[in-house]
Amino acid sequence: MNSINELIHAAKYMIDHQLAWGTSGNVSVRQDDQHMLITASGTKMAELTENDFVQWNIQTNEASGVRKASKETPMHSGIYVNRPDARVILHSSPFYTTLFACSQETIVSELFIETMYYLEDIAYVDYFHPGTTELGEAVAEQSLSANIVMMRNHGVVVFDDSISDALMRLETLEMACRMIAKAKECGIALTKIPDQVVSHFLEDSRYKPRKKGRI
Q1: Which of 4, 37, 56, 150 has minimal CB crowding within 10 Å?
Q2: Residue 1 — very low, low, confident or very high, per pLDDT cuts 50/70/90?
Q3: Helix count (H) and strand count (E) of the chain?
């Protein structure tokens, strides 16, 4: 399966599993040290074709072809420049994740196996208008320390070294946000896993090899 087909499949998966909606999301994949493929502006995640992607030079910030790249290109490009290990980026606004992005509620990772692993590091940036240089620079800076960047009153961007892990990171985030919100709604007190147990789990790679930010 080539990179474009993998992205098309990932985008449809996001729509089908309520991890994205309408035109609110965008996805990209690194091609090499200088280029990425990113969804074109105005594309619907559920209806992507091979013609809906733009090649972008992350060093010169220039596009190839006639399509206009997503307005969130600055943020994707900035992540790829700062994180050589990033191979795929997913940006979307899932309901519960965006609910938390629009609040001051804390997303805890010490809940279950997948949250311990995928949500170890979550960074936050203040609100900037979509597609602006300011947003791109803020997200790129925070990407140095985390593979998940929550954008206040906007949504989230996640990245990883594979599409499958990026999707799992996004799904785990949405699951955790939903669990925390539902627990509060139902008056259920969640029990966190002790810090020393979490450290042991992560340091001994009892799930998968640990992935951390660059700082």
Answers
A1: 4
A2: very low
A3: 7, 8
Q: What is the pLDDT of residues 120-134, one digit of tens each?
A: 999 999 999 999 999
Give the pTM. Answer: 0.94
Please check whether residue 140 is in contact with residue 81, taking contact to mean a CB–CB distance below 8 angstroms.
yes
Length of the chain measured in residues: 215
| Displacement of CA 187 from its chain's centroid (Å) | 30
What pLDDT, on a 0 to 100 scale, did the predictor assign at position 2? 64
Cβ neighbour number for residue 197 with a 10 Å cutoff: 12
3-state secondary structure of 55: strand
CB contact at 8 A, 7 and 37: yes
CA end-to-end distance (rounded Å), the chain: 33
Domain limits, the chain: 3-203
Task: Please state which CATH number belongs to domain 3-203.
Answer: 3.40.225.10
Query: Which one-letter DSSP state was computed for residue 40?
Result: B
Is residue 215 pLDDT above 60, yes or no?
no
C-alpha 89/C-alpha 76 separation (Å) is 7
- With CA atoms as reference, report the closest residue to 128 among 144, 150, 106, 97: 150
Closest C-alpha among 35, 42, 26 to residue 77 = 35
Indicate the average pLDDT of the chain.
94
- Quick: pLDDT tens for 186-203: 999 999 999 999 999 999
